[in-house]
From TrEMBL:
Similarity-based family: Belongs to the ABC-4 integral membrane protein family.
Compartment(s): Cell membrane
Membrane topology recorded in Swiss-Prot or TrEMBL: Multi-pass membrane protein
UniProt-recorded name of the protein: ABC transporter permease
Hydrolase as UniProt keyword: no
Transmembrane intervals: 21-42, 287-312, 336-363, 375-395
């Protein structure tokens, strides 16, 4: 009951000095806004990045030929394993039935020069062969046209899906490229689709330079006749990634007849490095945002302490009357502490609302999707607000509790 009475007295004191209390609460609100706002913006951007990475095939893994680094260990040269051949890759696709969608691709060249009439691209276009699932695995979306049909994929038709950079190099703006012809390696390919622009990602233009042909077509037109094949599996449920990779490893060992106890003759690699790097960066951003918000709150706590000290001085006679009527030093301390906490919580709630709005606005300006409500950081903001109230209110409360009632009653 004593604490409830002190809470009522604290609220009454806040109402008595409305302007000062509101200004003080605004100081706290600005600190909480900076903390919650920065972290909300980071959470919103991170959520958007995760969605983008999922669209870009971040939840995938590759089964590919084991890399040979020409290293020696204790004088023994690293063993060179044969590349995954077409028959092995096809058998894997036929037997794999885990939690994902497999796709078989091959890299023909990354220095192709494409032409259409008098127009020629730079010699840095990428001729890639793939099956009908490649767009699902690579996270590619078509802005025009369609994907390969089963007949085109099986028969190796001279059809192609082009990236946005290929389209902009060989076609006029707003020109329809579907059913037009592009020449590569002296062979004419009919355009059946155009990929949406993906943009530059970590210095890589992604799918924008792709000249994507059916896998059987790539096998036929490759001038070197020594293609290497990569199986990429897109996982629908990221929590099943480890299980799916284990299934793929066991299946490929069986197909390639790797002896028991011997290392794998191929690599199974998770395509998550970009997501992990960005997660690490946003972790540092969170630390920086928390530090900035904490420093702002520290300044706000000093301002609150100063105002509470002024309040103690102004209410010296009131404190003297309370002590003369029997109020103990503990009750006086409680009253001023609760008053400081009430002010900080008013500012904290306002700061959280402003922080969520400002943070989501910043995230929206940076092309993030959705509306983020950071429940964890909201609780952190309220707890920090309470801590600031106790920290900044203790010294004034302690000073008030130590005032002599006789001297306080004489104060003018």
């Amino acid at each position: 009951m004593i604490i409830l009475e002190n809470i009522r007295e604290g609220i009454k004191a806040v109402q008595t000095n409305t302007l000062r209390s509101v200004l003080t609460a605004m100081i706290i609100a600005i600190g909480i806004t900076s903390l919650v706002g920065i972290l909300t913006a980071i959470e919103g951007i991170q959520a958007s990045i995760n969605n983008s990475l999922s669209d870009l095939g971040a939840n995938t893994f590759d089964v590919r030929t084991k890399r040979y680094d020409n290293r020696r260990s204790s004088g023994v040269e690293e063993k060179r394993y044969p590349a995954i051949n077409y028959r092995e890759a096809r058998r894997f696709l036929d037997l794999y039935n885990s939690y994902g969608t497999p796709s078989l691709t091959t890299w023909v060249t990354g220095v192709a020069e494409l032409s259409r009439g008098s127009k020629v691209t730079n010699p840095n276009m990428r001729i890639v062969g793939g099956d009908a699932n490649i767009l699902v695995v690579e996270g590619g979306e078509l802005s025009q046209g369609r994907n390969f049909s089963q007949i085109e994929a099986q028969n190796g038709a001279n059809v192609v899906i082009i990236g946005d950079e290929v389209y902009s190099n060989l076609f006029e703006k707003n020109e329809n490229p579907v059913n037009q012809f592009i020449t590569a390696y002296g062979i004419r390919f009919r355009v059946i689709g155009v990929l949406e622009k993906q943009g530059n990602i970590g210095g890589d233009s992604g799918l924008d330079r792709y000249f994507l042909v059916p896998l059987e077509t790539a096998r036929r037109v490759d001038p070197r006749r020594n293609l290497q094949y990569t199986i990429t599996v897109a996982i629908n449920d990221p929590t099943q990634m480890e299980y799916a990779m284990g299934q793929a490893t066991g299946l490929m060992r069986s197909i390639r007849k790797d002896p028991l106890g011997e290392p794998d003759s191929f690599d199974v690699a998770r395509n998550q490095s970009l997501a992990e790097s960005l997660e690490e960066i946003t972790g540092y951003l969170r630390m920086g945002g928390f530090g900035i918000g904490f420093i702002t709150l520290l300044g706000a706590s000093i301002g609150l302490m100063n105002i509470m000290l002024v309040s103690v001085t102004e209410r010296t006679r009131e404190i003297g009357v309370r002590k003369a009527l029997g109020a103990s030093p503990t009750k006086i301390r409680q009253q001023f502490l609760i008053e400081a906490i009430v002010i900080t919580q008013m500012g904290g709630i306002g700061g959280i609302i402003l922080g969520i709005l400002v943070g989501n606005l910043i995230a929206k300006l940076l092309d993030a999707d959705g509306f983020v409500i950071p429940w964890f950081w909201m609780m952190v903001g309220l707890l920090i607000g309470m801590f600031v109230g106790i920290l900044s209110g203790y010294l004034p409360a302690y000073k008030a509790s130590k005032l002599d009632p006789i001297e306080s009653l004489r104060f003018e």
